[in-house]
Amino acid sequence: QVQLVESGGGLAQAGGSLRLSCAASGRAFSDYTMGWFRQAPGKERDFVASISTGGSTFYAYSVKGRFTISRDNAKNTLYLQMNSLKPEDTAIYYCAARNSVLISTSDTNYANWGQGTQVTVSS
Predict the structure, then answer these.
(1) Measured between alpha carbons, how far is residue 109 from residues 4, 49, 59, 85 in Å?
(2) Which pLDDT tens digit goes with each residue over 45-79?
(3) What's the 3-state SS for the chain?
(4) What torsion do the CA atoms of 68, 112, 87, 83 make, to the nearest 10 degrees?
(5) Other CB atoms within 10 Å distance of the CB of residue 88
(6) Which member of 24, 37, 102, 119 lies 3.0 to 4.6 Å from 29 by CB, making a disulfide possible if both were Cys?
């Protein structure tokens, strides 16, 4: 099991930037494919980005070119750099861990979740 704690959320203006962090503890962080998901009020939880154990990345179309997912295995930390923010990016952002080398866009394939961090983008 790996335990996850997100930080870095907050309020930003449209066009601005935020960087989310996800600190992992427990089992070897480097063994896990990691993902970011988000859930807006009244909506289902959606895939945002994922990074494999080997560093391959995949993004949702809505954030591609604006968001960057990265990981620092030495620090047991996952990041999401969010640029050119839009009001529609407003959501609770969750990091998740998958004990696999393969990327997945389905939240059902991730067994470990953080508590979430709120991101609010004003117009």
Answers:
(1) 16, 14, 16, 27
(2) 999 999 999 999 999 999 999 999 999 999 999 99
(3) CEEEEEECCEEEECCCCEEEEEEEEECCHHHCEEEEEEECCCCCEEEEEEECCCCCEEECCCCECCEEEEEECCCCEEEEEECCCCHHHCEEEEEEEECCCCCCCCHHHCCEECCCEEEEEEC
(4) -10
(5) 11
(6) 24
